[in-house]
Each structure stands twice: as structure tokens, then as C-alpha cells.
Structure to design on (298 residues):
DNA sequence: CTATTCCATAGTATAATGGTAGGAATTGAA
DNA sequence: TTCAATTCCTACCATTATACTATGGAATAG
């Protein structure tokens, strides 16, 4: 499945903010852009959406930047996805101009609706914290590896 | 998730062929188009893809048309999907120009790859026959309903 | 030989995607 | 008060994908 860049980069940006937040300090968009190798101006647009979706709070000016609006374990992946792309978890085709007992409707129910529900099961469980954990664990394993050489 | 019309209509067309095949008779594209309310010429393009993917065989001429190239329970949904849209089950982003231990890679592994595998689990089990069963069952229930009134 | 059917390619209008660009607004520090 | 750093907001644009329409050719049964 093709994931568009807004969704992909938005989640990466949130993860970056979560990982690089230090007490009291906001994370600058230019730093995120540099670390994650994203166009700064494009990232700003994505952060705008994330702010409007209440995932981050922002602060202007010389020591400005972004921080999470709530703890990472309270930020659900499915909410992020819905905010960044309202199609990705939307049920495939709503347009029910055909008779509800036709083949098309049957395929819709048996295949697309069920697939959609199935995907939701996966995504509704996950939080931003789960993603970060994975990353930190990766780092830790790497350090252990270095240590034991 | 947004499903494009080629995928949607292609599956519907296959289901229609499976349902309306009678012994020895091919199903005409014009009949499918009329029953399923699809543009005939567009449907022909889709049937072309399905033929190239070896899901149907075709026969030209006055009594021509399409029939399944093998029993419906041997036609896997995932194969149809891959033929009609090579993105739908493809792993989200391959482009690994970033360092493999970065946040982006971590999100890829933990989220997109896993979600993709999860979707596959659902779709790899299903055959065209399963879809048709659902439809026929719907019909049967409807008839029972009529019967018991 | 002709009607019927599939086969194949070209064109096209619309929308989505993936950005770039420019500057206004706000803030904090000197 | 001024200035630099930062977010905020909108407009624009090039490319690609989508969802068809259109046209005509090729094969085949009768």
C-alpha cells in the first residue's frame, strides 16, 4: 500500500519531537528537518496540520519550537493517520447507488469493509510511545553490541 | 482506504463471471457491464488485464465472452489485487536512502511493514469462491425471508 | 461475408501529490 | 526599541495517477 509523504513524515516528525524533547525545551522544525532529511518548508505544513489536530503545541520566537501536547502513550496512531489523511482509514467506497443486494455490495461488505475493520484492529492499539520504544530498543541493542565487541 | 475503480470493478467482474457462467457458455462483457452498471469500454480494459493475469480465458466471435480459467476456489484475492494494482499490497516505501537505524527506518519496520503483513494475512486467505459464497448466501437469506412472510 | 465479440492503443479532463516560495506575525534578547 | 529567530499562513506549480472516452482492428461463428 502506498503511504503518502504527509502521513509518513508526520509520524516521523512526531516521533522525532517525542525523542528529542528535553525538559522545558521546544524542538525546532529546522532541527527536525535536518535530522530526518525533510524539506523544511514542507515539514512546516505538516506540523501545521499536527498542531491543528492537537498533537503538538507550538511556540513562536527565538526559543520557539514544538512539543507534544500530551504524553506519547496518549497519542493514538489511528488519530494521527486520520488527521494527516482522511482516506487511509476511511471505509472504501460509500457510494451505494447500486442495489444493496447486488454483487458490488456483497464485495463491499465481505471484502472491503472487513479489510478495513481488520486494519483498524492493528492501528487502534498502537500509540506513539510504542513506535518510540521500538526505536529506543534498536539503539540499546546497538549499544550492547558495541559494548560486547 | 481508497480503492481504485480498476481493483473494485475487476473483482466485481470476476465475481459476475463466476456467478453467471453456465455450462459451456461464455459470459459477455456487455452483459457484465449492464448488470453491474459499468462503462462497457472501461470494463473491456479491465478484462484485458484479468486475461493477461490468467484469471479468465476469452473467446471471440458471435458466441464469445469470458469464463474463469480455473475454479473460483483456486483464484486468490491477493493475486487479483496484485494484478490490478501493484501498489495495494506492496510494502510501503522501499526507498532506504536513510540510515537503517534512524527514526524513519524504525517507523517503517514497526508500523508500515507490520501493517502490510497484517493486511496480507487477511487477503491471502480469501479466494474468489469465498466472495461468491457471501453473495449467494445473501440471496438465499433473502429468499427465505420472502418465503416466511 | 457479415454481424458480433474481444483486443489494443491513444487521448483527455480532473484531481491528488509533493513540493517551492514569500512573507506576515510573534517572541525574546540585546 | 530594534533585531533576529522562529512559527504561521497562503498561494502557486509541476508531475503523476485516475477514470474514463474514442477509435478502430482482429478473430470467429454461422
Amino acid at each position: 500500500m502506498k503511504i503518502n509523504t504527509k502521513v509518513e513524515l508526520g509520524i516521523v516528525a512526531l516521533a522525532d519531537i517525542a525523542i528529542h524533547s528535553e525538559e522545558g525545551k521546544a524542538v525546532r522544525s529546522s532541527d527536525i528537518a535536518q535530522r530526518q532529511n525533510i524539506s523544511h518548508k514542507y515539514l512546516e505544513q505538516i506540523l501545521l496540520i499536527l498542531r491543528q489536530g492537537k498533537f503538538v503545541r507550538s511556540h513562536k520566537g527565538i526559543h520557539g519550537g514544538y512539543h507534544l501536547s500530551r504524553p506519547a502513550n496518549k497519542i493514538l496512531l489511528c488519530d494521527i493517520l486520520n488527521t494527516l489523511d482522511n482516506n487511509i482509514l476511511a471505509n472504501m467506497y460509500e457510494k451505494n447507488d447500486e442495489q444493496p443486494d447486488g454483487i458490488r455490495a456483497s464485495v463491499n461488505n465481505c471484502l472491503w469493509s472487513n479489510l478495513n475493520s481488520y486494519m483498524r484492529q492493528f492501528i487502534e492499539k498502537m500509540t506513539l510511545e510504542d513506535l518510540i520504544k521500538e526505536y529506543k530498543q534498536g539503539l540499546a541493542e546497538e549499544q550492547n553490541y558495541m559494548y560486547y565487541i
Chain A has six helices and two strands. Residues 103-125 of chain A form the longest helix (23 residues). Residues 4-6, 39, 41-42, 45, 59-64 of chain A lie near DNA strand C (CB under 10 Å from a C1'). Chain A has a mean pLDDT of 90.
